[in-house]
Write a structure and sequence with these properties.
single chain; Rossmann fold; 2 domains; six-stranded parallel beta sheet; 12 strands; globular
Length: 397
Amino acid sequence: MTRILILHASLGAGHLNAAKALCTAFERISEVEVRSEDALSYANSLYRSAVTQAYKQLSEKAPQLYRAFYEGSDISDLEKSLDSNLTWAKLERPFFADLEQLLKEFDPDAIVCVQQIPSRLLQILEQDAQTAKPQYVVVTDVIAHSTWINHGVHGYFLPNSLSANLLIQRGVNPAVLHVTGIPVKLEIMESKTKEETRSRHSLPNNIPVVTLFGGGLNHRRVKSMVVDLLASPLPMLLIVVAGRNEKLVEALEEVTDSSHVQLLKLEQIDYVDDLVVASDLVVTKAGGLITSEILARGTPMVIVDPIPGQEEQNADVIAAAGAGVQLRLLEMVAPAVQYLLKRPDRLAEMHQSALELGQPRAALNIAEHILNDLNARRVMQTLEVSELESNAIAHAE
């Protein structure tokens, strides 16, 4: 049986969700043994704590410093970027002895990385262990940063042709680049209507529905947006999803309906896709996975507070495609929502633009490509063995 190891890293929920989507896709296509692991859980506790805290502190409390680091580490020269990533891997390798043991014990036929850290480590771990297996990289940002590029990668799966063109310009072999989209849960391939999803969750059909995903946003800024939206003269249902953001739950505790706007406050839910389908408009940050899910459903977006670096790039691509609007001033969120809800033709155009950008079948396309590639490699190996045997027999005669 084919064994597939998927490696992600617990720096944001997006990588985990991409790994889950790929697991489901592999299992649906064929009888394979799929294992998904957080590479950081196999790291030394000191390293794991340092990396996760640095990411959290920089992205949330020092965004401009994060932008400087992100942009400064994006190297355009291919050889220099490969050397830089290899140097990082050599520095990190002593902290990942358990990850090397995982590779030996599971002995996968292929390794799929949905985050940069495990991908660059494989350059060294497998080389030293002499257990090199085909490695595939699934880029979960709309634009591929140079930290995604490593030695020994058999295939890169990219969100769009823009990323592919940028990598080609940097000198990456076009033969290993595949534009598939970011893998989203297979549920998004299922047909759903706004009417049925609203009925399923007891949402009104006679007024617009706006959903604000606030789990990854600052609670004070979300409360400010909610208060402004509640002051709208336009009737609507405003759904605020707090997820695991306990501070947001507390901040909204005493906030209630207004004369025109109904407010529905939710915490952790397992029906995000239903809400996306049920909504006329979604307000969200620009994470690669959440925006890919929304695009695949064709729901127009208002993007706020993108993390400097990759999320700003995600937002730029979405806004440029006409699938959403990006706002820097939170005071503009409520006016923008009202403006769009009053213009169904504009929302229809954004819906169509989102569908053209979205890739609901991305996970299946990636899994199919990898399994086909592995089968082709097996055939080539069989042919090579047969040729060697034939040559040996001819030589003996």
